[in-house]
What we know:
72% of the residues lie in helices and 0% in strands. The chain is mostly helical and 248 residues long.
Amino acid sequence: MKLRGWASCLLVVAALAFSSPCFAAGHARHAAFDLQPLSHQPGSVPWNIVVLLTVLTLLPAIVLSMTPFVRLLVVFHFLRQALGTQTTPSNQTLIGLSLILTFFLMQPVGAAINDAALVPYQQGHTDAMGAVERASVPTRQFMLKYAREKDLALFLELAKQPRPERAQDIPMRVVVPAYLISELKAGFQIGAALYLPFLVVDMAVAAVTTSVGMLQLPPVVISTPLKILLFVMVDGWNLLVGSLMKSF
């Protein structure tokens, strides 16, 4: 069965680390206590394990910087602040929701990585590093869709590299930070637009409570349930998640 989804991107190196021909050869050499030739082969089990451990170590950075996770999480935190519910939903809930939506959005990219990198690696047509290089192609294409040209130009200038003729020739060390700050900008833009309606409710409640002389009760105590009621009445979660998903 083919691996689908974002998991295939993260496990592109590990999927057949213990089922490749090199693994069988490694066991035979290990049984004969002759590991010296194996340690110098680029496709040997030690190299596969090193690459696998490196990928697992960089897993949080990969999720944060190469997926829509940052934009989704920023928007959800802005929503919580706008509603005035400081701890509801909890951080764990927002992170979990962002991860699930990220997996949903990245599933086509994961399928492309599976076809381009994992299947050839399983069939022995490429080694671990070659599979990683192949996996970077669909990931780069995804990030280039949402990275602003201004941000790409900035990091090309910082890297002191000439402007390439094709977008596909931009190195990953330029694409990843450009994509990350583009996602941060998009998240803040959506969050600011989301904040404005609730700010109007806060101002209206503050004006009413001040005009009637209700100074003992903070306006936020009255506006918070009104904002929650407004958000529920317009089916806010459906509208927000739908708009976010359509933005990709």
